[in-house]
Design brief:
434 residues, 12 helices, 18 strands
């Protein structure tokens, strides 16, 4: 009876809090966090509490999502910080993603699920702290006063120590653009009254990292007006060059923006992202760009050629494609196991991650290259296909494709292999312009 009463009281408080949150303004620095009921997961167990029960000198709300590579890469660091500071600090992970999406993520990636309380399927904190783009960190003191709203890279041992000593910190404020809609043209966002008449154009700006945490890109093909529109916000020069030259480097379209590193680009170290919490803000200010290109009545190849010319014009670099001998992972036939053709020739071609692993049905072997390229920040070497096999196959591989021994073992059973060898491949060489 007592447990039922407590649960009923908690639900009533939750409903009351939700009614209040729907009426109050969003929170900013200097505001006090209301006493919010929270349901969080830790060690596969659901627990309930109130924010007022979190008696810590520092609470860090770490907003993340399953598509945020930098959020996931930072989880071991946040775990380590929690262990280092113990009861003085509480890190809470918050995501809008549901439990199934979170579990599927950690089933297929190398990063272990952190031993931190995690609020899943959040509907409250994202209302209190609306934002575009993760990670976002909110620092709250022991009086539940919001002290900092900033980017995740500022969560360091040195900054935590200074905060706990009550030494003032000058952390950059993440101030979001009000009602910023990344799906709209940048000309519209810039209050361009003639944007409706802009049929073809390119627009190049500095990064907007001081205004929005968005790390965004889109490529839209509109058949009604026969146009192609590319847009990115807060992207590096390497990302832009990778997009403009992807078909020439790989021979097919590959989503380079979802990869941390394009290992077919040779470039100065100054162009590579840095993760030093002290220097990253300065690097972002100097090396992130916002770009939009729209063209009509052109082929994709012509569109990418125009993008290449734009980047040569706007950025202080020279670029050219050269063939270079490079150590690679080469996908081949193993000649020991007979390759089995698909037994589902009439089904639609499919290649996707499932609970069983990465499964391909009636799919070409090239369907495997894209997910392998997607995880290339874990598989360091370029991956090329020398199978010369054009038939469709069925196969189910381990979900953790970066585990090369298991991947090779599984591929071998289907008649393929992945070997390390030197090959002469196309590389994009970027050098500073004289």
């Amino acid at each position: 009876m007592q447990k039922t009463f407590l649960l009923t009281a908690f639900v009533c408080l939750w409903l009351s809090t939700m009614a209040q949150i729907n009426k109050i303004k969003t929170l900013s620095i200097g505001d006090t966090l209301p006493n919010i009921p929270i349901i969080f997961s830790k060690a596969s167990t659901l627990k309930t509490s109130l924010t007022n029960n979190l008696q810590r000198k520092l609470i860090v709300l770490d907003f993340w999502n399953i598509w945020c590579g930098s959020c996931i890469a930072a989880m071991p660091k946040m775990n380590a910080l929690q262990k280092q500071f113990g009861d003085e600090v509480q890190v809470i992970l918050i995501t809008k993603n549901n439990a199934e999406e979170v579990d599927n993520l950690f089933d297929r990636i190398k990063v272990a699920k952190p031993d931190l309380p995690m609020i899943i399927g959040d509907t409250m904190f994202n209302l209190l702290f609306p934002h575009e783009g993760e990670p976002l960190h909110v620092w709250i003191d022991e009086s539940k006063v919001i002290r900092h709203i900033t980017d995740g890279h500022n969560a360091t041992s040195e900054n935590f120590i200074q905060f706990l000593k009550q030494v003032p910190l000058k952390l950059p404020l993440r101030s979001e653009l009000v009602n910023f809609d990344p799906s709209r043209s940048l000309l519209v966002e810039a209050a361009g009254r003639l944007s409706y008449n802009a049929k073809q154009y390119s627009l190049f700006l500095d990064g907007l990292s001081n205004l929005t945490g968005l790390n965004y890109w889109s490529l839209t093909k509109d058949s009604s007006e026969n146009s192609i529109l590319f847009k990115c916000i807060n992207r590096s020069a390497l990302s832009l060059f990778g997009m403009a030259y992807n078909k020439e480097l790989y021979g097919f379209d590959v989503n380079l923006f979802d990869r941390d590193r394009n290992n077919r680009i040779v470039s100065p170290l100054s162009l590579h992202p840095i993760y030093d919490s002290i220097l990253v803000n300065e690097w972002n200010a100097e090396n992130l760009y916002t770009y939009e290109l729209k063209m009509e009545n052109v082929t994709e190849d012509q569109f990418y050629e125009a993008m290449q010319e734009d980047l040569k014009r706007y950025l202080p670099f020279k670029v050219k494609i050269e063939r270079k001998k490079t150590k690679c992972l080469v996908l081949i036939k193993n000649d020991k196991v007979l390759i089995r053709k698909t037994v589902h020739p009439n089904l639609p071609s499919k290649a996707e991650f499932t609970k069983e692993g990465f499964c391909m049905i009636n799919a070409s072997i090239s369907s495997l290259l894209k997910p392998l390229l997607y995880i290339n920040h874990m598989i360091v070497l370029p991956i090329i296909d020398e199978t010369h096999y054009d038939e469709c196959v069925d196969m189910c591989l381990p979900s953790k494709l970066f585990d090369l021994p298991k991947l090779r073992e599984s591929l071998y059973n289907y008649g393929f292999d992945l070997i390390e060898a030197e090959r002469e491949i196309k590389m994009l060489v970027i050098t500073p312009r004289d």
